[in-house]
Known about the structure:
This protein is of the alpha/beta class. The radius of gyration is 16 Å and the shape is globular. The mean pLDDT is 96. Helix 1 runs parallel beside helix 2 and helix 5 packs across helix 6. The chain contains seven helices and five strands.
Amino acid sequence: HEPTRQEALDDLMKRDLASYPEIVFCGFGEPTFRIDDILWLVDEMKKAVPHLPPVRINTNGHASLIQGRDVCPDLQGRIDVLSISLNGSTPEEYCAVTKPRDGVKAWDAMLDFTRRASKVVPKVVMTIVNKDKTPEEIEACRALCAGLGATLRVREYIPD
């Protein structure tokens, strides 16, 4: 079942969190559908574990679009790293790869989220997979990221 925030916290607190190199929120689906729960969990973990490892969220960058508000100010002091799936260098490629419910609006929301988050989160990384990407497309992605205050991580394609 979908755990409550308290169930998630209870499970997390059974572990030696300080021994982990990083705490990562990701999973089957978009974690920022539950951004308020994530932020609550981070606050609770920080209270209990003085030297909590860095906290990262792997996301599609639609948190503010999903929540209907700018969530970026809430990330400050809580989230250390954001990994945002860029997936392409143009809105057309992005929509072809991800097929977002909101179409090009999702591309714009992802870019806006990245721009705003980069002002309050210490490390913002955008990712693409190198499959079928030309050097020019990779460089276009790198330039796009730089303009948003993020860095590009090119992931290797791993065939099935």
